[in-house]
Automatic annotation (TrEMBL):
Any one GO biological process: protein maturation
Organism of origin: Holdemanella biformis DSM 3989
Gene3D superfamilies to which the protein is assigned, alphabetical: P-loop containing nucleotide triphosphate hydrolases
Listed name of the protein: Hydrogenase accessory protein HypB
A matching Pfam family: cobW
Length: 220
């Protein structure tokens, strides 16, 4: 014997409501919340470092580094002289809106223009939970392959921007940039795409210009 249960309410509904509330709180305080996601090793921390080099003197920035354990990334980012905290997820492979709110509360939103959440390295779970961010960014590195938007559709559907990183090693991998862009736009026709190399700085200025303009528009 068994029961048939009809699920009529999304298990994510409470989180989605909380995320919308957090977005409103950030808007009221004039804080732009950026959620950066990628697989492990795609270059989130290095890309964030290059971004800070260009923007830390032009706006007030706070960084939340999320990881299952360790504080390696927080130590790296704190060297840039911006407000930084490390979030430990206790084994969870993502952050949700309430966890993000806790991080913002501990970091403090006072006198911030931009708060950045470097999410847990994972192409699945982080995409499923709305953190309350103003914009979502996915970083896809050349060594991962140009087919990732097809294999991990939700990640690329929820992201406003995709950075194709590690362009300096393009010649060593079977990676078709135009095919990758086609795959991204197939999942999300409105996605903004930047070709970058966090190591060399290629394309980082264009990305930073876009981000700075978005932050200014959010605060108006």
């Amino acid at each position: 014997m068994y029961k048939i249960i009809e699920v009529k309410q999304s298990v994510f509904e409470d989180n989605n409501k909380d995320a919308n509330k957090l977005r409103e709180e950030c808007k009221d305080k004039g804080v732009f919340l950026l959620n950066i996601m990628s697989s492990p090793g795609a270059g989130k921390t290095t890309t964030l470092s290059r971004t800070l080099e260009r923007l830390k003197d032009r706006m007030r920035i706070g960084i939340m580094e999320a990881d299952i354990d360790s504080d390696v990334d927080a130590k790296t980012i704190s060297e840039y002289g911006v407000r930084t905290i490390q979030l430990h997820t206790g084994g969870m492979c993502h952050l949700d809106a309430d966890m993000t709110r806790q991080g913002l509360r501990e970091m403090g939103m006072e006198d911030l223009d931009l708060a950045v959440l470097e999410n847990v390295g994972n192409l699945v779970c982080p995409a499923e939970f709305d953190t309350g961010s103003t914009k979502n960014v996915a970083i896809l590195s050349v060594p991962e392959g140009d087919d990732k938007p097809l294999k991990y559709p939700l990640m690329f559907q929820v992201c406003d921007v995709v950075l194709i990183n590690k362009m300096d090693v393009l010649s060593y991998f079977d990676f078709d940039v135009e095919k990758c862009k086609e795959n991204i736009l197939y999942r999300n026709p409105n996605a903004k795409i930047f070709e970058v190399c966090a190591k060399t700085g290629e394309g980082i200025d264009d990305w930073c210009n876009w981000l700075e303009n978005e932050v200014k528009a959010w605060k108006e």
